[in-house]
Specification:
The chain is mainly beta and 219 residues long. The protein has a single domain, classed as 7 Propeller (Methylamine Dehydrogenase, Chain H). It is built from no helices and 19 strands. The strands form 5 sheets. Strands 1-2-3-4 form a 4-stranded antiparallel sheet, with no helix packed on it. Strand 6 and strand 7 form a beta hairpin. It is globular, with a radius of gyration of 17 Å.
Length: 219
């Protein structure tokens, strides 16, 4: 198979995200403009102009209608994915590191880095179907004791979050009470989902969790 080279960023990539159909791809990088690509032929469809810092993260809606990005410029931005028009901005006091829509897209989870005297944090927003009803105020937010959060994922029917951190730490959170639950490489878990982690050791680990056991497979 011959790879297609997508040339559009001058600085290192931070995240890539396919849409549900797999025909569109969004790439984020340490430069300011996320890019939208056709995955069939590698054609760059357009860019999203507005961020003033490295864009660390992105997610998109199930229908490929809206794009959400988070940046070192301390903002989360919601875009009209087909046109590149910015629809809404959520501003933090800290850089945004990761965003993730919940199943059903009723909620948006976002994480922020430690900054000056602020510790890392997790913020949950209502994600409005009508952008005119979108709020920049989280419905719940909490701080994390230590360790920069690199990614966030919903699980257990949106009742819990899984976060990965620098240094190989993985945490599971009860969203309602904002309390970390112990989760280790070989610890028992009752999440009922599968998630992957990757580290500087070069391994990708697929974690399988069900009611009876927690295992890790190496590829």
């Amino acid at each position: 198979m011959r790879p297609i080279l997508l040339k559009g960023h001058e600085r290192p990539l931070t995240q890539v995200k396919y849409n549900r159909e797999g025909d569109l791809l969004v790439s984020c990088a340490k430069n300011l403009q996320p890019c939208l690509w056709s995955s069939d032929d590698g054609r760059r469809i357009g860019t999203y102009e507005g961020h003033n810092g490295a864009v660390w993260t992105c997610d998109m809606t199930w229908d490929s209608d809206r794009l959400i990005t988070g940046s070192a410029d301390q903002t989360i931005r919601i875009w009209d994915l087909p046109t590149g028009k910015e629809l809404f901005e959520i501003r933090h006091r800290e850089p945004c590191r990761a965003v993730k829509l919940s199943a059903g897209e009723r909620f948006l989870a976002a994480t922020t880095d430690a900054f000056i005297e602020s510790p890392p944090g997790i913020h949950i927003y209502n994600f409005a179907e009508d952008v005119s009803e979108q709020s920049a105020t989280p419905v719940v937010a909490w701080t994390v004791p230590k360790g920069r959060i690199t990614r966030v994922y919903w699980t257990d029917c949106n009742r819990k979050l899984i976060t990965s951190h620098d240094g190989g730490l993985v945490r599971r959170w009860d969203v309602e009470v904002s309390r970390p639950q112990g989760l280790g490489l070989l610890a028992a878990g009752r999440v009922g989902a599968v998630f992957t982690t990757g580290g500087e050791d070069g391994y990708v680990r697929v974690h399988h969790m069900d009611l009876d056991y927690f295992t890790t497979k190496f590829f």
